[in-house]
Amino acid sequence: MTTVPPPEVAPDPDAPPAAVTTAPVAPVAPVAPSAPAAPATPVAQEPAEKTGSSFLAKAALVTAVLSVAGSLLGLVRDQALAHFFGAGTDTDAFLVAWTVPELAATLLIEDGLAFFLVPAFSLALARRSEGPLVDPVRELVRASLPRMTLCFAGTAVLLVAAAPHLVAVLAPGLPDPQLAVDCTRLTATCALTFGLAGYCSAALRAHQRFVAPATVYVAYNAAIITALFALALPLGVRAAAAGVAVGGALMVVVQAPSLWRQLRRPYRPGAEPAPASPAGGSSGSSASAGSSDKTLQTAIIWTVLFFALCRQSQVLIERFLASSLPAGAISHLNYAQKVAQMPMVLSLMLCTVTFPVVARALAKGETERARKRVERDIVLAGCMVLLGAAAVVAAAHPLIELLFQRGAFTAQDTAATASVMRVYALGLLGHTLVGALARAHFSVARKTWVPLYAMSVGVVATAGIGFLTVGTWGVHGIAAANATGICVTALLLLRGMGPRTVPIRKRAVVGQLGRLAVAAGGAAVLGAACAQRVAQPALAVLTSFTAVTVSFVLLGLLLGAQPWASALRSVSRKLRHVR
Fold first, then answer.
1. Which end of the chain is more exposed for a tag (fewer CB within 10 A), N or C?
2. Residue 244, Cβ neighbours under 10 Å: how many?
3. Taking all residues of the chain, what is their mean pLDDT, rounded to a whole number?
């Protein structure tokens, strides 16, 4: 946020005159009362907007560290689930119920609600710096939070009541539907808790407070792990569902104090109200404009939520198709997806941190600044996810063996999960681009149907390919359909970037991603060759990851990929500065 500069007139009357003059200084002529030079009360109460590379790097680092901690706890959660229940009917029943928190996380925390609320809070903060009589941020909270809370609570109650019908729709071929119904009724509470957690996260990120939102999955996964170890024997797999309910409440608890501190900050409006519109509109025209603005905001909400729902429907399609396969198919898909998507989650951390920056820049009309930021984010996120995808493909079997092969999780489960994970990894770049480009589309705080159209086409492609291939290729056909559908969506989103959103240079971005993809392909081949020569899983993973990283960097330098060239220029400048 920009701060209003200090007034250049009306110096302190008690300050001594300038030393250059020895003669008495004549008093300054008084200013006309109708046009005061500068108000004595400062207008901006917010600290200056932090958009420098140093702040963004620190914020991204803190977010990434806490996200890695949450992801590692998520792995421990999956390991505990595999240890207690393996990849059988109990796990399949819980994973059907797990669809509810997965969908709620996408709609309310990660994508849907954030895509609307972050630009809305960013716009309110930009207006606050102008010093209106009423604080726009508090007005936004008063207008939105009570209504949203009622919607979240009503949805949770509806899901609890409709759990049997929901399970029948999601997995009609499930061997034990009653167990899935019990778990679904416990996980349905996340419709309320995840909604409140997502609201807090969006508001805090718009205020450039990233620590509390990054801790939500640490608290969430810690609650599930604790519930599994404490209640797995008496409750069975229902213990994991109970952990979901408790973890959702903890997501709100870890963020609420920080948001409360931001909202309680003193606000001092400017001395003068905002000037009237050039047309000389009266209060009636203002009310009409407010009504139009509310209608526009409602349209934005629906486009964002429908987009997030379409994106998460890929998982629903997978569960539906896999429910007709032998027991354990849903579990193999779940474990493969969780491990394969870790590089994507880490790569999007930078976009999560810079999303409020882009939204604030567009709210101020700084399109060029937003364009440069989005282009840089896409290339850096693509670089990180391609490196991770190459590592996942190269060390798939020893990685799954190291993480899960113990207790009820057998060697056959390891082989099936590793082969599916390699197919999933082919769509990781598409998943990352969809996350980055969707943020760019929605950061303009304007109604746009391009993301929904692109995601709908991708979902149709996923469903069509999945139905055609599941009978022949089983879980591999489902994973291939997922990768194909998300890549189609990414291409359509990239094609839709233009003057109405953020006008990035598409050819330059695609060229950079193409070079990085070639480097990742070569690194994956070399890493797989190294992994096959080592028998011990931990050593095989370490050897493969090292080979992939070194070869990816060298091939990227050879191909002239932008991240490496920029890094070398930065190091050279620092060395010259030191000298």
1. C
2. 26
3. 81
Q: Classify residue 415 as exposed, middle or buried by CB count within 10 Å of its CB (0-12, 13-18, 19+).
A: middle
Helices (H), 129-255: 136-161, 163-170, 177-187, 190-206, 211-214, 216-235, 238-253
- CA–CA gap between residue 509 and residue 506 (Å, rounded): 5
The answer to whether the beta carbons of residues 288 and 373 sit under 8 Å apart is no
Question: Per the structure block, which two tokens stand in for 235?
Answer: 């409750």
Find tokens 């489960």 and name the residue.
Answer: 413
Q: What would the two tokens of residue 418 be?
A: 């590793």
Closest by CA position to 70, among listed 407, 400, 349: 349
What is the DSSP code string of 475-516? Answer: HHHHHHHHHHHHHHHHHHHHHT-STTS----HHHHHHHHHHH
Amino acid identity of residue 309, one-letter, is: L
Positive or negative: CA dihedral 12, 14, 19, 20: positive
Choose the most confident range, by mean pLDDT, from 335-339, 369-373, 396-400, 448-452.
Answer: 396-400
Q: Which of these, 256, 201, 244, lies nearest to 67 by C-alpha position?
A: 201
**575: Cβ contacts below 8 Å, ≥ 6 apart:** none
- In whole angstroms, what is the distance from residue 369 CA to residue 354 CA? 12
- How far is Cα 241 from Cα 159, in angstroms, rounded to an integer? 14
**Residue 541 CB contacts under 8 Å (≥ 6 apart), including other chains:** 395, 398, 399, 402, 531
Three-state DSSP class for 454?
helix
SS3 state of residue 556? helix
CA distance linking residue 425 with residue 63, whole number of Å: 24
CB 157 within 8 A of CB 164: no
Number of H helices, E strands in the chain: 24, 0
User: How far apart are the C-alpha atoms of 126 and 314, rounded to whole Å?
Assistant: 36
| Best CA proximity match to 51, nearest among 205, 208, 263 | 208
Annotate 369-395 with DSSP letters as a single string.
HHHHHHHHHHHHHHHHHHHHHHHHHHT
Amino acid letter for position 81: L
Q: How far is CA 351 from the centre of its chain?
A: 8
Contact (CB, 8 A) for 119 and 359: yes
DSSP code at position 174: -
Q: Are 63 and 210 in contact (CB under 8 A)?
A: yes
pTM recorded for the entire structure? 0.69
CB 313 within 8 A of CB 459: yes
Give me the half-sphere count of Cα atoms (radius 13 Å) on the Cβ side of residue 111: 28
Residue 186, both tokens: 């416990």
Tell me which residue of 553, 562, 525, 530 sits closest to 390, measured CA to CA. 525
Residues 517-575 have pLDDT tens digits of 999 999 999 999 999 999 899 999 999 999 999 999 999 888 887 665 555 454 455 44
Residues 6+ apart with CB under 8 A from 248: 101, 189, 190, 192, 193, 194, 197, 220
Residue 376 has pLDDT above 70, yes or no: yes
Give the count of beta carbons closer than 10 Å to the beta carbon of residue 211: 14
Residues in the chain: 579
